[in-house]
Here is the input.
Amino acid sequence: MGKLDIGPLWKMSFSDGYNPNIIDINKEKAWVSALLTCHPNTEYHDEIASALYKKLAINAVINTLTALLQVKNGQLVQYVEEVNTLKTEIFATYSAANIAYSKHALSQAIDDVIKATSNNWSSMQQDIKFKRQTENDSILGYLLTLSQQYRIDTPFIRKLYTQLQDLDNRHAIE
Here is the structure.
């Protein structure tokens, strides 16, 4: 089972902060406490956005490359150029969008997940193998939109997105 990152609901709901008339903070605390107990790999973040952007970068590298190459996660160590090119474009996008991250720490986190899950098949690889729709739009599509918004050229992300989109379109017809 993968890691579950959660954060305060009120921060996701209200840009100006907590609204006690709409969300009962005590109920939220009870819900979070129960979730932390029930899911063995849950991590709570006061600033959920940073955790989500970290997860996005990890998924963008691992899921998309393993899906297109049809390899296990650990085999990505053989595709250093592709991994590094994708990281570079993600980092450029994050920098332009003023998303707080450490280039070294995020790069290391991606490498650590590749190593820790080396014998696993990614969910997107399995989607392609079994001709199911992928999360391409939610992962690379989001990164493309973000990079375009900040006028960052991301040709490798665009290439991978198009390749996965073509596979998704073929699978939708079959």
Q: What stands out?
A: The chain has a mean pLDDT of 87. The domain at 48-173 is CATH 1.10.1040.10 (N-(1-d-carboxylethyl)-l-norvaline Dehydrogenase; domain 2).
